[in-house]
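A sample follows:
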Amino acid sequence: MAGSDKGRDTVRLTMKGKRGLPDKELVRGLSSLGFNRIDSSKEPALWLVESETMDGKPHAYASFIFRKGAIDAIYSITPEMNRKLRRISMARLCLDVLALSKFSGDAGTLYSEIARTLDDATEFADTNYLLLKNRCEQLSSDNLKLAAKNRELLSAGEKNSRILLEAEKMNSALKERVRALESLSDESLREELLDWLKAHGGEINAAEFAKLHGLTPARVEEGLDMLMKRGEIARER
């Protein structure tokens, strides 16, 4: 039987029969199930209160009332709960209560509830399986794409590394060449400049000379300045 209260459904199951535990041993016998409220003013009642309303009333809860000839199981299904999961967990709790209270009698009501719960569990499991299967396939597809992208990046990285290595080698060679040219002795430069001037009628293009001899223009200017200071050449006026 189910009722409704402000969007919260209440399910009540009545199982006719007798419990083997007397009232005094009942609470101790069911203590492992986590009940947090006890009401023994009339008929023993155990409550598992999971949440409360603003005025302190149980909102999400399960309770068991132990009457002389029956056990009433009452639980709520709140809007924020998954109904199927709630029914499954409550069916399990009912079975635990019956076992620990040493119940004997007609549990047909519970069996019907369990049958419906098993249907819910099967449907829920099938739904979850499909969701997990689709998610797994999606993740597998994403993984293949990422693996391909990773291979592209590794290939590009290797290519860039080779390019960088070649550039470093060329740069190193150029630095060595510059050092070699800059280390040309003054006397060698003097001879090269004098030979050039003789071959070109006393004229020189510093940029051209520097290019042909692998020198910097600044180094050529230094050589010409050296020759003028020694009086070996003079600038035409």
